[in-house]
Structure formats: structure tokens, C-alpha cells
Amino acid sequence: MKYLLNSLLEIQSKHGYLPKEELEKISVEFNVPMSRIYSIATFYNAFSLKPVGKHIIHVCKGTACVMGGSEVFEDTLKQLRIFDYEDFTYQPIRCFGACSLAPVVVIDGKVYGKMTVSRLKKMLSKLRDEDAREA
After folding, report:
1. Which of 7, 8, 56, 94 has the largest count of CB atoms under 10 Å?
2. Coil, strand, or helix at residue 21?
3. Residues 75, 110: one domain?
4. What is the predicted pLDDT for the residue at 1?
5. Is the pLDDT of residue 85 over 80?
6. d(CA 60, CA 123)
7. 26 in a domain, yes or no?
8. What is residue 70's three-state secondary structure?
């Protein structure tokens, strides 16, 4: 199991997601049914079965964060039309375990606690501006 997870992590790192063709190779290599591979890949938040954008936005859906207002962040992302940009991927997460910082948003692996709608808007606007300058 340990080596299977390592192989999946390597594929995720290389491609940014787990392509079906690669999972089929892993299935043969480890003699593990595809159904088992998919159950592992969908259980862990570290894996994605479809391509992700340059910027990954995680919003905590844990109790402390929801009570702290994280539910409005998804609406904010919709209002900003973040979902229209290929460079952004939104992934809600059950809990980051950083309840004392609630509500928590993680953008590109960096944790931001005590998040507010206005702060989130500013951060995402800055990322879009930086991406536009790089293009």
C-alpha cells in the first residue's frame, strides 16, 4: 500500500492530476483492481482525477470554519467568476485542523486564517493581475 500511494503521489506531482492511463498502468504494476485504485484516489484530498489550474483554492467546510462564515466564500468565488478561469481550481475541504484560525482558506498551499470576503477578493484579484502580467 505504501508504494502504491507513493506511485500515485509521483503521478499527481508529474501531471497535476491522476490521468486514467497512468492509473491503468499502476493497476497492472501492483496487480490491484481499478476500483481499488479509484477508491484510494478519491479518499485522499491530495489526489485529483481531473486536471487542475495553476492556482488551487481550498475552502474549509469544517464546523468551526462554517460557523465563522466560510460558506459565503464559494458565493464570492462565483461572483468573481473564478470558475470561468482555467488557471483556478476550487476544492472544498472537510477540515484543515486549524480551527483556531477559522475561517480558513488555503491558496496555492499557503494557509490564510481569519479570512474575510474582502480579503479573499483582494487576494484573488492580485493573483489574476499577476497572471495577466506574466502572459
Report:
1. 8
2. helix
3. yes
4. 63
5. no
6. 17
7. yes
8. coil
Whether residues 60 and 125 fall in one domain? yes
Buried b (16+ CB within 10 A) or exposed e, 68-93: bebeebbebbeebebeebeebbbeee
The half-sphere exposure of 51 on its side-chain side, counting CA atoms within 13 A, is 6
pTM, entire model: 0.76
H/E stretch holding 47: none
Distance (Å, whole) CA 71 – CA 87: 22
In the chain, the number of structural domains is 2
For residues 67 and 39, membership in a common domain is answered with no
Residue 125 amino acid letter: S
Q: Find the helix or strand (DSSP H, E) in which 100 lies.
A: none
Could you read off the pLDDT of 26-78 as tens digits, one per residue? 999 999 999 999 999 999 877 899 888 899 999 999 999 999 999 999 999 98
Over the chain, what is the mean pLDDT?
92
Spatial CB neighbours of 47, under 8 Å, sequence gap ≥ 6: 8, 12, 17, 18, 40, 41
